[in-house]
Amino acid sequence: MPIEIPDVVIDRLPLYYRLLSRLDSEGRSVVSSQELGEELGVTPAQIRKDLSYFGRFGKQGRGYSVPRLLDELKAILGLDGRWKVVVIGIGRLGRAIASYPGFEGQGFDIIALYDASSGLVGTEIEGQRVKDVATLEADLKKTAVDIGIVAVPGEHAQDVVDTLVDAGVHAILNYTPNRVQTPPNVEVRHINPVLFLQSMTYHLKQRRGG
Amino acid sequence: MPIEIPDVVIDRLPLYYRLLSRLDSEGRSVVSSQELGEELGVTPAQIRKDLSYFGRFGKQGRGYSVPRLLDELKAILGLDGRWKVVVIGIGRLGRAIASYPGFEGQGFDIIALYDASSGLVGTEIEGQRVKDVATLEADLKKTAVDIGIVAVPGEHAQDVVDTLVDAGVHAILNYTPNRVQTPPNVEVRHINPVLFLQSMTYHLKQRRGG
DNA sequence: AAGTGTGAACAAGTTCACAGCC
DNA sequence: GGCTGTGAACTTGTTCACACTT
User: Fold this and answer.
1) Which of A53, A88, A108, A125 would bridge A114 by S-S if both were Cys, CB 3.0 to 4.6 A apart?
2) What's the pLDDT score for residue A4?
3) CATH of domain A83-194
């Protein structure tokens, strides 16, 4: 790996991957950066530059082979294997996550669900018995997990994340509104719809002649 | 306001706002950019620069008045009023959204829920009668709505968004995995957890010595 | 003729560093 | 003494434009 690849580039690859999956399923065999860009609202130059960090996948005068590029991206993103995921916090949101059909099909296996409420522990959700979060630490020591999805009440987010990180989980998707602290070798993504709404209201206000 | 304010700055303001709310509720009266930065994982210089786009809210030698800055941000982001929101698509995800307690408290009123399924239309969710999406267009003409949250199956996302945009909705939060096309004067935010997982797997793969 | 790959030019965003004020 | 506000320096990211390949 000669030069460092910017994080923004990595963040765009899944977008390309998703579009190529669709094109592939529609039977398209070749596509240009121009067309990819139009579909995604990105400049063709950016797509070419992004891909060029990883290799030379296109053919001059023709474009990119859809199945070829799809395969390359799959390998780059590590989507050619399966990843073990646990969900902690099985309230309404956690249940929606646990039953979201988009994970399984993309290589993410939800192998366990955890909650703290005695009313929920032991019940079945999507064919999984909900386990007591008190057993999380011990379970992680027995079975390595790749990704933790945190959907507990905000005030418990940091505790749960600490448990995950201490047990060697290096990727966390945090659905709580609280930011969490992690060591630099842990990837964290925050999903907080309120922040999105609040940045949109700024723009709405502007339009109104604010 | 002489110069144009970068979008990245706007996107950070809700983060500051949230932290200040917390500090305010804890009774803190003054805070420095240093401390804000530590809490949020951002440099103090960036916070000062961001705020300086909107005014001079701090006092040299002391820092920022927490209630004052909170109020300023509230006004800047338009959070001093209430915003009308509709949710379209009341599956598991839509239901989780409709019952998410974080919206109401932040000035977002979910005034209607819509779904296409005859099994759902007419039922009660969180004290709201679910309406038929076929009536959405007419309803929007009668009652102006600020923000549309879209949680329908992906293949219907563009249709729903078109209906919203045609009726004058200028802010859309899209929970479907499909990107949607909108005119430039419409704000759209996409929430797609799979994209986050896929960018994290890239980094996980690197750690493993990929 | 069409479309990639890429160095170079450019634009955007971040951090520095310090004058100025409390 | 401490901390803001802000031009200037720097860094990062994007777009241009064209040589090159099919």
Assistant:
1) A88
2) 86
3) 3.40.50.720
Question: Cα–Cα distance between B134 and B70 in angstroms, integer?
Answer: 41
Q: Which of residues 19-38 of B touch strand D (CB under 7 A)?
A: 32-34
Distance (Å) from the alpha carbon of A187 to chain B's nearest alpha carbon:
6
Q: What predicted TM-score, i.e. pTM, was given to this entire model? A: 0.96
pLDDT of residue A149: 98
CATH domain A7-76 topology:
Arc Repressor Mutant, subunit A (1.10.10)
One-letter amino acid of A58: G
Q: Which residues of chain B have pLDDT under 70?
A: 1-3, 210
SS3 string, B165-197, reads: HHCCCCEEEECCCCCCCCCCCCEEEECCHHHHH
Domain range annotation of chain B: 7-76, 83-194
- Residue B112's beta-bridge partner residues? B86
**On chain C, which bases lie within 7 A of the protein's CB atoms?**
1-7, 12-17, 19-22
Give Cα A98 to chain centroid, integer Å. Answer: 14
